[in-house]
Amino acid sequence: MNRYEKLADNIAQRIRAGSLKANDRLPSVRELKSQMGISASTVFSAYYQLEAQGLVEARQRSGYFVRAGAEMPTNELAASEPVLRSMPVDVSSLVFQVLAQARERDMVPLGSAFPSPELFPFEQLAAGLTRALKRMDPWQTVEDLSPGNAQLRHQISLRYGSVGMDVPASELVITSGAMEALNLALESVTQPGDVVAIETPTFYGALQALERRGLRAVEVETHPRTGVDLSSLARVIDQHPVKACWFMPTFQNPMGCTMSDAAKEQLVSMLATRAIPLIEDDVYGELAHGARRPPPAKAWDRAGWVLHCSSFSKSLAPGYRIGWVAGGRFAATLGRNKLMSSLATALPSQLALQEYLQHRSFDRHLRALRHSLSRQQAACLRLIDRYFPTGTRVTRPEGGYFLWLALPEGVDSLALHQDALQLGIGVAPGHLFSADRRYTRHLRINYGHLGDPRLEGAIRNLGELANAQLKSTTGKSGPIFEERSSRP
Amino acid sequence: MNRYEKLADNIAQRIRAGSLKANDRLPSVRELKSQMGISASTVFSAYYQLEAQGLVEARQRSGYFVRAGAEMPTNELAASEPVLRSMPVDVSSLVFQVLAQARERDMVPLGSAFPSPELFPFEQLAAGLTRALKRMDPWQTVEDLSPGNAQLRHQISLRYGSVGMDVPASELVITSGAMEALNLALESVTQPGDVVAIETPTFYGALQALERRGLRAVEVETHPRTGVDLSSLARVIDQHPVKACWFMPTFQNPMGCTMSDAAKEQLVSMLATRAIPLIEDDVYGELAHGARRPPPAKAWDRAGWVLHCSSFSKSLAPGYRIGWVAGGRFAATLGRNKLMSSLATALPSQLALQEYLQHRSFDRHLRALRHSLSRQQAACLRLIDRYFPTGTRVTRPEGGYFLWLALPEGVDSLALHQDALQLGIGVAPGHLFSADRRYTRHLRINYGHLGDPRLEGAIRNLGELANAQLKSTTGKSGPIFEERSSRP
């Protein structure tokens, strides 16, 4: 982390924690120079970054001030309220129906699961692949079968090493994206009928994976900023025969929440004590908006109970389908399951990533990507604030590219989704994010499509549709699906 | 098919059927010219091909004669004898142990599942990929998600069309190799605990897939030349609640047998009548040694009960991991299962294959590949005949790159495998090819490694090891695993 990034990060944290409040003036360049001995250009760079993130604003001749709404908003969502019984999962049909619509290029992709493909270095990846294929030894088609190309695994291991994590290359299995990694992890630690603990709301892909394997889900209370509530988890484990947890401790989908380092450490040790495997989905981990990449829970895994899954699909190379899993004590089982399920991962993709990681600066690309996403989040929040109904609550994640919105009572987000489709706008209705479809007035909004000129119009349209629903439902019939919880 | 290929094919079939016998003289060029009105060069080309295949030989000043041993050998294996009860499958550990050893480059790869990687046009594939990546639209990373790149599916559909099969692109799902296709097919038509009918002996990957999904296997009598015995299948279906069949009707692994067109047609209609899905593994279909590519069973699928799986991994592009499934009436379910299991197939690999199929001659490559494999089979059969114990029986497949050997009673092929390892030779012991490990004196030999100068020495060593076992077991203890069937 650069000096200016450190400074910006430090100030951002104080704003989010509320110790710097709206309209507070930031220290002047001169003050910081004398207090901390840092150069004027460092201070300017930090303030410029904070401004781009929408956290501070320059007022003419007065200096830099904390923006109104930059602190953790008063309209923050409350922690989710889990359903206490475990339940079978049946959400796939709805998910497929919604996702199929998100594939169309003409649709404003607010419901998409992917950031804009224009954010990625495809030319550099292609150039590297061309070089690598020229050197390729035909025997690699045999030798680079699972667990995968040794140099690629080495590069991934090195990258973990650079944030202080010891993940040896021998623990890694290269997979066809994180989705395969997660499915293999689930297969390695559960049998059909078992109970798996998940966050609520949670990534619909996790729900589908549970459904596909015939597993039961039990939900754990999840805070929109700090993630899994550990005392709720302890209760769930006491009351249910939980065979595994499937969590996203960093920049969770859909809420964007991140557990603190201390909470991650405690989570890992709590589960290790009870011999419960943790399937960690870390696909958004590299997309921190600040300069610090929060360490995955795997960083505290000494006993090997964490099956850590990730990929390059969100951070570097969508479409290449390169993911991996560090399986801890389950690594050997995982490797065998990979061989049985798809034998091996595509060699050209492996070579392209290996070549890129060895010869290009992944960090330089990530810096630009993170900065873009951060700036775009601020813009998207402003539009939501302007156009959405009063009483709409929204997350303000420190990474990733999703916002999670709770609209006022009376809005049905599935109906909203259907109306929006007519206008060529895709959104992900809250119904997708729990086994019992109870997030009926929630939306996940993707802000990862920078520079799409249709963005403002689409958000305005969505806001108008929601307001129209509110007017028409006042005193009329309720939403399409009965709401089972009034919170969040 | 060229004129000379047709002629050669016709003669080869007559030799294999026994109507032309060892030492029979083939018609002279003049005779054929006058009888059939074909040119001398056509006849010479046909005879040259038959000679290369080891079926005929030129004798000085006398003309061409059928080689001794070219007819279907008298030492042909008998049809397999299935176990009549269904049984759970537990063969994975042994398979992994054996396969891990086959990965080492120093090992003579007689046990490998892959032909020599030096047989494939990697430079052309790479050049096509480079061109395709230059043109790639970043949005393809979203649009070419499952079911896969539309042009690639179109090319595959066209190829089926060229052999008279109607497989629309919309029925195809692109997968990470055939292994994923087969697993997705199995998942789409079975639940854990169901009974699946398989050939015996059968591909260990099928056994692993059944084991992984908790399915029970029931075996069907399989002839080493003509494949699945339909009356045995009818009995099995009457006696067991068979939920699906998993067969390789063309160039089966390990025996290389191929069902006749008529038998395939009858198989498809028998299963359709009973509403039983057929999972067809056709990965070796393109590797016919003669000029005719036997049509897959799918060619007769009018009611959509055939889930036809294949890939380019054995025929064109190992390591690229591009397979597909034409799911018939299960196509939509298959597409959803693909999305849930690994989301999508690697885009660079899809583009490379699409580009190759569109701009290069797959058929020209295949002609050279088939010719090489055919020549090498003849050489390998001669070596086995020379060095293996008297009484060894062996298949003579018309495609693929495997021989299946039954050694005399007293040989244990797992012990042979272990002894061979010490000499740097890999083989696939028969134990891998049934759920109850009963092919204890059988070997699968890969002859797809052309030009490996170690081949003759390795076959000689194997023969010596087998002969030594026979000497030492005469009057001594039996093989490591008790043999449960005396046939084949």
CATH architecture label of the largest domain in chain A: 3-Layer(aba) Sandwich
Shape of chain A: globular
- Which two chains have the most extensive interface, and how many residues on each? A-B, 57 and 57 residues
Strand content of chain A: 5-15%
In whole angstroms, how far apart are the ends of chain A? 36 Å
CATH class of the largest domain in chain A: Alpha Beta
Number of separate strands of chain A:
18
- Oligomer state equals homodimer
Radius of gyration of CA atoms of chain A, rounded to a whole number: 23 Å
Mean pLDDT of chain A: 90
* Class inferred from helices and paired strands of chain A: alpha/beta
According to CATH, the fold-level topology of the largest domain in chain A is Aspartate Aminotransferase, domain 2
So how many helices of chain A?
16
Helical residue percent of chain A?
40-55%
CATH superfamily of the largest domain in chain A: Type I PLP-dependent aspartate aminotransferase-like (Major domain)
The major β-sheet of chain A equals: 8 strands, mixed
How many separate domains make up the residues of chain A? 3
Biggest sheet strand order of chain A reads 3-7-6-10-11-12-13-5
Give the low-pLDDT segments of chain A: 475-488
What does this protein look like?
Chains A, B: Keywords: Aminotransferase, DNA-binding, Pyridoxal phosphate, Transcription, Transcription regulation, Transferase. Chains A, B: This is PLP-dependent aminotransferase family protein. Chains A, B: Residues 1-69 form the HTH gntR-type domain. Chains A, B: In the C-terminal section; belongs to the class-I pyridoxal-phosphate-dependent aminotransferase family. The structure is a homodimer of 488-residue chains. By secondary structure, chain A is an alpha/beta fold. Chain A folds into three domains: 3-66, Winged helix-like DNA-binding domain superfamily/Winged helix DNA-binding domain (Arc Repressor Mutant, subunit A); 88-117 and 365-473, Aspartate Aminotransferase, domain 1 (Alpha-Beta Complex), CATH 3.90.1150; 120-362, Type I PLP-dependent aspartate aminotransferase-like (Major domain) (Aspartate Aminotransferase, domain 2). Chain A contains 16 helices and 18 strands. In chain A, strands 3-7-6-10-11-12-13-5 form an eight-stranded mixed β-sheet, sandwiched between helices. A four-stranded antiparallel β-sheet of chain A has the order 14-15-18-17. Chain A starts with a helix and ends in a 15-residue tail after the last helix. The interface between A and B is large, with 57 and 57 residues.
